[in-house]
Predict the structure.
Amino acid sequence: MRLILLEPQLRHSPSENNLAAIQALIDDSSLALSAEDVLLLPERFHFGPSQESYVSDLTSLARRLACHVVGGSHQEQREGRALNAGLAVAPDGAIVGRYEKLRPYANERGWVSPGSELGELTIGGRNVLVLICADFWFSDLIQRARRLPDLVLVPALSVTRKPTPEYSRALWRHLCIARAYEFGAYVGVSDWGYPSELVPAAETTPDVRALRAAGELPRFSSGVAGFADPTTTDPERMFQPVGSSAIRAYPIDFGALETFRRDRIDRGFFWKGSKDPA
């Protein structure tokens, strides 16, 4: 299995075709994908008018690329509520899992409700846990998982109110490393690339101007995509950013992960919410 992570330049506007930008990025990379690979899309990349359009776009992409796609997220109407939710799709277009954002972030709480469905999936016989962006910052959500995750996937739309993205990037990288070591799992994040514009400059309604003036409306993403590897002993490889190419494939060595977990058990490190990973 390889994990394909992205950090594309996207636009937070219904008039933009972010999926086309993502497809072009993948095509230009010349990556030869296979059914064992997992592509992780960023949070809220899809502004389609309906759940049907989101599902159609995801299944078409998975079939076209012939790999698994964990579909970032979009705003979904469900039982009279708006949720930030996503789906995972197999290479043949079959839906293999669903996940919701349980704890919406900051002013996001004004337009979506907290979800309830934790994203526990099985891909390639491996336990996968999907946490949408801010949910990754709550360790108790990881501890809710019924099975020890081998792979934690984070579709993100990072935000910053700082002059540069470095503060946010440092926080995310340290957290990814800590989560990977604490829970004995690989961690992958796909994000909007810096400086993707979160609110178009042309959008100057009074509400938007007021939010900006109050410092409640971050304008740019931070570009925090990357891969945390708990099995390495090289400090420079504990977190590997996607980098300037905006797309990168990471081989996943589950044998090395099992060795890492056995060593943790031998030294008395256990995750109280899991079964014995040995």
